[in-house]
Amino acid sequence: MAPKFKILLYESMHARGTEVLAEKCELVYATSLDEKNLIAQAADVDGIIIRANGAVTRALIESAPRLKVIGRHGVGLDAIDLRCAKERGVKVVFTPTANTESVAEHFVGMAIMLAKMIRLGDIALRTGDWTARNRLIGTELHGKTLGVLGFGRIGRQTARICRNGFAMNVIYYDVCDYPAVEKELQAKRVSGEKVFEQADFISVNLPLLPNTRHFVNAKLIRLMKSTAFLINMARGPVWNEEDVAGALREKRIAGVGSDVYEVEPVPADHPLLKMDNFVGTPHMSAHSEEAMIRMSLVASDVVAVLEGREPEYPVTV
Predict the structure, then answer these.
(1) pLDDT above 90: residue 2
(2) Whether residue 264 lies in the annotated active site
(3) Which is catalytic among the residues 72, 119, 163, 283?
(4) What is the pLDDT of residue 156?
(5) Prediction pTM value
(6) 31 and 85 in one domain?
(7) Residue 260: which domain range?
C-alpha cells in the first residue's frame, strides 16, 4: 500500500471535506498558528490547508521541502505568500464560489438590521421600553441605491438580491466593467467617489491588496449622505476604522455594519462596539452550513494536485 500524503490543517473543517482527505491522507492539526510552530509541523507535509487564521509565509514554504499544494478554505488569498509558492512550484487552490451566497445574504441581513433599527428595537423590548416604537423610525431598502465597491462574485450576487428583492438601483466601482451584469441588473459602473456620493447603502467587497488598504477613508466617507449606511464584507484593513468610527461618533452617516476588522479577534474596547448605530458580527458571514461544506471541499483539489491531476480551482499568479 502506498504511503498516505501528509496534510497540515490550520483548523478543523466540515466533516465532508475531512472525509475526502482522510481516504488518502494523514491529517495533522496545527497546535498553534505561531509561525515557528507551523514551520516545525510542516517539515514533512505534502499539503497545507489554511482557513481564516494564520498565514502561509515564505519562511514556512521554504522550510517544507515536500510541500506540493496549499489549499485555501475560502476566498481571500492575502495570508498566503503566492510569489514564494510560485517560485517553489507549490500549487495554490481555493474555493472562489463557495461562500458567495452566504456573504451576500449576510450583507442584506445587516442592511435590514441597520435600516429597520432591529438591534435597538430588540434591546428596547428586552428592557421593557415599549415606547421605543415611537422613537425608532427606520427606513426602507426598496427603491434605494446600492453602491458596491468591488464587483466580484459576492458583490454581483449582493447586487442581484438587492435589485430583484428590493428594486434597488445598482452602481458599482471596480477596475473591470461587467457589461452583461450591467444589462441584467441595469447597473452602472462609476468612480469610487460617485459610489459614496450617490449610494444609500454601500457594500465593501474589495480584495485586500496594497492599493486597497484603507481605500475607504475619511475623504470618501465625507461624501456620503447623512442617511446612508456603510457595510464592510471584505477585509478589515480595506477601510480605516478610526475614520469610520469618527463618522459614526459625529453622526455624519446613519449607520455602519461589519463582519471584518483590522485586528481580529476584536478587542473589547473597540470604538465601534460602543456605538448604537453599529451592527457587527465576528467574521462569520461565510459560515452557513452550505458554505462550510463547499469551502471544505477544497480538499478535492488538494488531493487532485497530490495525485498529479488538474485542480478545478487553481490560483494563477
Answers:
(1) no
(2) yes
(3) 283
(4) 98
(5) 0.89
(6) yes
(7) 100-280
